[in-house]
Design brief:
four-stranded mixed beta sheet; Ribosomal Protein S5, domain 2; alpha+beta
């Protein structure tokens, strides 16, 4: 239940390119989120990509720390905030979460913002489902 498996990671270059070219995006500081409805080959509701800019954090240690914190917050809250709704609607999306914060924040702050981000994403996906139906 609270795992983050290989199938949930976004690795397909064509999907990533399409996401950044024609996906919807929003800002929930310190995260920039891009998402797009998709038909995925795996039976998972979401495939996600986490990114931290090399331009902002020169040291790999810092980038990895931020990505670990983001992944952990996502892993703990994805089920309650996002997966339940998507599985009910039988929808699949691809998602990119980029860290745009200027400094490395503590885990509690990232966790709180991740919950807010997932709720906001859930509302946007719900609005997209209503308009396409």
């Amino acid at each position: 239940m609270y795992t983050f498996k290989k199938e949930e990671r976004l690795c397909n270059k064509k999907l990533i390119e399409g996401l950044f070219r024609s996906g919807s995006s929003f800002l929930c500081y310190p995260f920039r989120v891009s998402w797009q409805p998709a038909v995925l080959p795996q039976n998972v509701p979401v495939q996600v990509l986490f990114a931290v800019a090399k331009k902002r954090y020169k040291h790999a240690v810092d980038r990895n720390l931020v990505k670990r914190r983001i992944r952990e917050a996502y892993r703990l809250h994805k089920q309650e905030c996002l997966y339940q709704y998507l599985q009910q609607q039988q929808k699949q999306i691809i998602l990119s979460v980029g860290y745009v914060g200027k400094e490395i924040t503590d885990y509690k702050f990232m966790e709180k913002k991740m919950q807010k981000l997932l709720q906001q994403l859930n509302e946007l996906v719900n609005a997209d489902v209503v308009t396409t139906a």
